[in-house]
Amino acid sequence: MREEEWLDEKIRACPIYEPGLPIETVARNLGLDPAKIVKLASNENPLGPSPRAVEAVSRCLQSLHDYPDGGTFRFREKLSQKLGLDPSQILPGNGSNEILEMLATAYLKPGQNAVFGQYGFVVYRLATLHAKAEMRPAAMPDLVHDLDKMRELIDEDTRLVFLANPNNPTGDFLEPEKIISFVKSLPEQVLFCLDEAYVDYSEDPVDLRPLIREGRRVICMRTFSKIHGLAGLRIGYAYSTPEVIANLQRVRQPFNVSSAAQAGALGALDDEEHQIKTRKLNRESLDYLEGALQSLGVPVRRTQANFVLIEVPSGKDCFDSLLREGVIVRPLGGYGLPKHIRVSTGTMEQNQLFMEVFSRWFHNLK
Predict the structure, then answer these.
(1) How high is the pLDDT of residue 366?
(2) Domain 3-36+273-365 architecture
(3) Percent residues over pLDDT 90 in the chain
């Protein structure tokens, strides 16, 4: 037998997550100077990590021989003050991705299902398949979440509903009132999972803490990989009712968040200046990219996140062409969007280089 035939059929059906290409790999494969390559593929912070986070991480390096704080006491205390919640309502994760896996492990089993948008974050699919449960992707007309279509897919076997707002990769954003009304309509057995990875870029984010305080079955997840610039440390968190968090603690791995990650996150939470600078640059970048692409006649979706979604004749051809010139973007064929690319906002110099290379490719199509 082939090795994969020993796997459960649902695990065998799992696609392998494909991250954005690292700069070093592109440089080596194409013979390019790494210093001249621009990566706009993974929605990272172009300003880099919070300086306070870097300082905090450097201070903890001499104690790397010790296990990290397995209870993440200071981390949860800090977040509880920031969010106005009890520390028992906060769960640390090795990035918010790990929390998605915890949710599926704890709440899904064969015969049950999870509902999410057709073009939602790919890890919703992966986590559901890993739990050997049924995926129920709801159609997204015009690449926007349709809460009515999601509601139609929910039945007595539905246990989780995933929604990102803003959504990755489409960038669609739903008004707070719509989300709150949707949550209130859910049956008791459904745990609503709001992915807030890009919430720090949003102008009018929904706040579900009042529903959590009422005891509704809601969990929200956030990451330090985006506005805080700590993607390499892998740290995120969730907040919910104490009962939901206690259930997830049952499946959380011991010491799942490193000492360096906890130190960096604590430093980043205090660095309001870095967050303000990042938001300002992001707004300027979105304005620039939207205007430049529209001037070419290229369909572009502005988002309340740190990327734009661009419609092109072939996402793969565009990706390959830009890659040869040292610009890394994200093709979306794996999401079922073969005629789109996702481009992260960068520094203004990086944005301008992208437009220079993209414009050359676009004009050569004619």
Answers:
(1) 66
(2) Alpha-Beta Complex (3.90)
(3) 89
